[in-house]
Amino acid sequence: MFCGIISTNCAVRGVYKNMKCPFCAYAESKVVDSRHAEEGATIRRRRECLECKKRFTTYEIMERLPLIVVKRDGSRQTFDKQKLINGMLRACEKRPVPLLELTNVADEIEQELQNSLEREIKTTDIGEMIMNGLKSLDEVAYVRFASVYRQFRDINSFMDELNRLLKDE
Fold it and tell me: Looking at residue 39, what is its pLDDT?
């Protein structure tokens, strides 16, 4: 039986409190088996009630704090990894860059942001992170993204970015 999503419980010698049995509502159970689920994002636990001895399943999910993105105009919105992927897809249009690699870059960026102590992140910082990821995947996609992100106004600003890219190699 699925009991629901739980957070970390207080464990004392293998006995878990605050997790009521769905059958008899007894407050103590023991963990019989633990496994990672959903590629490690969740932990599935089989529990046994210490009162009625029936077994049930619970899932633990790591709680993530929401990230707020501060846009150039000062407005704020919640972080959306899909927007990162969509922006990179536009830059990689008709380029030989697999979607899986773009998703990996987006995952790395999200993880880095979650690991930072900042809850508000500027779009300029996210843009730089995306450009760093694209630079290692495809230089053409990098220049495409940079041209929109850095708002190139003329051919000279475009050439400056190309020269900077060549100099870094």
Answer: 66
